[in-house]
Design brief:
Layout lengths: L11 E4 L6 E5 L13 H4 L4 E5 L18 H14 L5 E6 L1 H12 L4 E7 L9 H13 L2 H11 L7 H9 L2 H13 L13 E6 L7 H10 L4 E5 L6 H4 L1 H13 L1 H13 L1 H9 L6 H15 L7 H15 L2 H13 L4 H14 L2 H19 L21 H4 L3
Parallel strand pairs: 2-3, 2-4, 4-5, 5-6, 6-7
Antiparallel strand pairs: 1-3
Helix pairs in contact: 2-3, 4-7, 5-6, 11-12, 11-13, 14-15, 14-16, 15-17, 16-17
Amino acid sequence: MKTQPEDRLPYHRAEGAATAPPLLLGPSLGTSTALWDEVAPELSLTHRVVRWDLPGHGGSPANLIGPGATVADLAALVLALADALGVDRFAYAGVSLGGAVGLHLAVHHPDRVAALAVICSSAHFNGAGPWQERARTVRREGLAALAESANSRWFTAGFSVPRLIEDQRTADPEAYAACCDALAAFDLRDRLSSITAPTLLVAGREDPATPPAHLREIADAVPGASLTEIAGASHLAPAERPEAVTAALRGHFDGYPARGMEVRREVLGDAHVDRAQARQTPFTARFQDFISRYAWGEIWTDPTLSRRERSLITLTALVAHGHLDELAMHVRAARRNGLTSEQIGAVLLQTAVYCGVPAANSAFAVAQRVLDELDGPGATDGEERDARDEHGERDAAETSGDA
């Protein structure tokens, strides 16, 4: 990968574990990384989140683009930033002009975009004329007038984010005008069907700049795309309705239920999960879904700790709270995650010091039974047998869920 000098790259902020899947967040015209202040911290729980600023906005140098700039030029800056960070393939979400950059990347650089979310944006921005006129006005008069009208263009009545209004006021006029040039020339409607990245469209139901019909047009053209409309949101939905935007993005990029079930099977085994699913009732269905999404789809998929390390922690916690049915299940899981019988014994011995001898004594009895099943003559992987506690009762986890 070729890398650019720092002064030729957009300003960026990185959050989350360096080993987590990368997610780049693009801004709208006139704003900065602050647009994502209420969303990025939540996304960084499962991703390496990188927010970037447009040229002349926030902390980015104004001379990264000039008159006659295109969305392709902005996309090239994003790729240069990704290269400098050592990121080859990434998920991407962008608002308005930032969303247009995402569409360009998905069309022209499909090998780089793992998944895409386009928020309050469009495949075209109502023709070149209005943007060319805005560019001329800004070059002539600056940004004060646009800052005065930003609330009505960006938010629903009565809502404002002063920090973002200040971003509009303090952006570099020449760089802002060059971004207007890019919007004037942008139209990808005839290329949308070529996008292969999983794509989510998010529309603000009260957005006058890029109304839901613009997002619907993209959703209808991109194979397999989905559309979410957010009530009570105008053009800057991540700032006005951050909880709704966060939920939509997490569901799209993380795929919690599907990924959670996948990890649940990898750790606990197909036989156990099949039994739990077979015993699911309307009463327990929501709990089963909660476990797949939260415990397995968020916690066990977090790359900060290995599965082996998570097994060590889980065994200790279960002993401490006396959850012996769950302990039996997780002794099996620990073996599947790479722990030996000796290492499991060492964990339980340490619990005798910190959780108490009676708790460790009961835990050793449960673990011995499970390990005998796993390692004894004619044993399989232990999944063919129903896990039972000392009274011969089936694991509670198999009837309700597992954690």
